[in-house]
Write a structure and sequence with these properties.
The complex is a heterodimer of chains A (113) and B (115). Chain A is 0% helix and 51% strand. Chain A contains no helices and eleven strands. Chain A has strands at residues 5-7, 10-13, 19-24, 31-37, 43-50, 53-57, 64-68, 74-78, 87-94, 103-104, 108-112. In chain A, strands 2, 4, 5, 6, 9, 10 and 11 form a seven-stranded mixed sheet that branches. Chain A is globular. The N and C termini of chain A lie far apart (37 Å). The model of chain A has no long low-confidence stretch (mean pLDDT 91). Chain B is an all-beta fold. Chain B has a single domain (3-114), classed as Immunoglobulin-like (Sandwich), CATH 2.60.40.10. Chain B has no helices and twelve strands. Chain B has strands at residues 3-5, 10-14, 19-21, 24-26, 32-39, 46-52, 60-61, 64-69, 74-79, 88-96, 103-105, 109-114. In chain B, strands 2, 5, 6, 10, 11 and 12 form a six-stranded mixed sheet that branches. The chains are: A mainly beta (113), B mainly beta (115). Chain A binds chain B through residues 3, 31, 33, 35, 40-45, 48, 50, 55-56, 58, 88, 90, 92, 94, 99-107, and chain B through 4, 6, 33, 37, 42-47, 50, 91, 93, 95, 99-108.
């Protein structure tokens, strides 16, 4: 069974540009979570999607947004990129009924120059 | 607000020996879950062990066990018979039962395993 997959593996952008990160959850999982892992820091919760709707949001500015598609895959969009947005972005998925266990992808490394 | 603190940024252990990673958390809630996740160089976070706060018995998964002290808000991970493959970043995490599906992670402990 395929795990959580994220693309691209690495993304290089310049300040002011937009970045789009993608995530495919484990088959059967309806919830998708996004986290930012900046260097030397733990994971910071960004967004949670379930059944196509945004259910919860972390303490991030509105230029961080996303969506979940009917097949439960998800996109994270970061507009007006800033240097401090450089981080590893991790996606996780869970079964709605078993939402306490999250399964993570390998992440997208976003570098903002 | 919930916070999770891992006070050991880095630790080392000799292969086959035992090591304990510390984690404390702050919460006013009575029911919650606690987790230890492992992040090897491949970057993929892997669940190591989970503890439900209402269970007094400490969780165990093979060589991994926890010491859950609810009153002290402490949740340490013990790795027995350490193996080279245990080398990774370890994150302690808290999940509220009330703020549904919002996880709080510690800053991580880097574990080095020496042959």
């Amino acid at each position: 069974e395929a795990g959580v997959t994220q693309s691209p593996t690495h993304l290089i952008k310049t300040r002011g540009q937009q970045a789009t990160l993608r995530c495919s959850p484990i088959s059967g999982h309806t919830s998708v979570y996004w986290y930012q892992q900046a260097l030397g820091l733990g994971l910071q919760f960004l967004l949670w999607y379930d059944e196509g709707e945004e259910r919860n949001r972390g303490n991030f500015p509105p230029r961080f947004s996303g969506r979940q598609f009917p097949n439960y895959s998800s996109e994270l969009n970061v507009n007006a990129l800033e240097l401090e947005d450089s981080a590893l972005y991790l996606c996780a998925s869970s079964l709605e009924s078993d939402g306490d266990i999250q399964y993570f992808g390998a992440g997208t490394r976003l570098s903002v120059l | 607000a919930q916070t999770v603190t891992q006070s050991q940024p880095e630790m080392s252990v000799q292969e086959a020996e035992t090591v304990t990673l510390s984690c404390t958390y702050d919460t006013s809630e009575s029911d919650y879950y606690l987790f230890w996740y492992k992040q090897p160089p491949s970057r993929q976070m892997i669940l190591v062990i989970r503890q439900e706060a209402y269970k007094q018995q400490n969780a165990t998964e093979n060589r991994f066990s926890v010491n859950f002290q609810k009153a002290a808000k402490s949740f340490s991970l013990k790795i027995s018979d350490s193996q080279l493959g245990d080398a990774a970043m370890y994150f302690c995490a808290y999940r509220s039962l009330y703020n549904f599906n919002k996880f709080y992670f510690g800053s991580g402990t880097k574990l080095n395993v020496k042959p």
